[in-house]
Design brief:
The structure is a single chain. The protein is an alpha+beta fold and 186 residues long. It is built from 4 helices and 8 strands. The strands form 2 sheets. A 5-stranded antiparallel sheet has the order 1-2-8-4-5, with no helix packed on it. A 3-stranded antiparallel sheet has the order 3-7-6, with no helix packed on it. Helix 1 packs across helix 3 and helix 2 crosses helix 3. The longest helix has 19 residues. The radius of gyration is 19 Å and the shape is elongated.
Length: 186
């Protein structure tokens, strides 16, 4: 299974303004850097909590054989499309009667393909995210995202040899995200 973010969460508006306010930045000359730091913070939050904090479009490639296939993206909000990818590169829509999406505990979902299909893989495009926009992101997650991006911004000019601190989220950030963390049992 392969997961690809097709449409990353939009952090160029309110999120960027909030980070700039936190850092005391009024000019726009570093907006591109700040947006990339917010995107990196979103990815770290997703990796830590097991859930995408902000709405984004994701493609998951699944086997083309019948059975249950757990999705790695969480929480699933909607299915955008389900398509069969053929060996020759052609794409065909998968009929809605050929599959089902089962929601399980802790916002986990499982794609169930009723019968084998002729093709290389199934491309399932889903909309995922705890919140549809920045304004509705839960306060603890939002505060952690801002703090982490600010930490990365301030840490960018550190001189000397890199330490472990450069690759680890500050404890205050993980404390804010911990209530949202989900664990998977395999």
């Amino acid at each position: 299974m392969r997961r690809t973010i097709l449409e990353p969460a939009d952090v160029s508006g309110s999120a960027l303004a909030e980070l700039k306010s936190w850092l005391g930045i009024s000019r726009s000359n570093e907006d591109e850097l700040l947006v990339s730091l917010l995107q990196a913070s979103l990815e770290m939050c997703d990796a830590f909590t097991g859930q995408a904090p902000l709405s984004q479009l994701v493609e998951e490639r699944l086997p083309a054989h019948a059975g249950h296939h757990s999705l790695s993206s969480r929480p699933i909000n909607s299915i955008v499309s389900a398509e069969v990818l053929a060996q020759d590169g052609t794409v065909t829509a998968l009929d809605a009667s050929d599959f089902d999406l089962e929601f399980r505990a802790v916002s986990n979902a499982c794609f169930r393909l009723f019968n084998d299909v002729e093709g290389q893989a199934i491309s399932l495009k889903v909309r995922v995210g705890i919140a549809p926009n920045w304004e509705t992101v839960p306060a603890g997650i939002k505060q952690g995202l801002i703090r982490l991006a600010a930490f990365q911004y301030r840490d960018r000019d550190r001189t000397g040899t890199p330490s472990n601190k450069a690759t680890v989220s500050p404890a205050s950030v993980t404390a804010l995200w911990r209530p949202w963390r989900t664990m998977r049992l395999r």
